[in-house]
Amino acid sequence: MHSTGNDFMIVRWPEGVDLPDRNVVRGWADRCRGVGFDQLLVLETSEQAELAAFYRVFNADGSEVEQCGNGARCVARYLVGNKESATLTLGSLAGNVEVRLEPNGDATANLGEPNYDPLSVPLRANSESGRYQLDLENGSVEFGAVSIGNPHAVIRVDSVDTAPVGILGPELQSHSLFPEGVNVSFLEVRDEARVRLRVLERGAGETQSCGTGAAAAVAVSRLWGLVGDHVQVELTGGTLIVKWLGPGHPLWLSGSAIRVFDGRIEL
Question: What pTM value is reported for the model?
Answer without folding.
Answer: 0.95
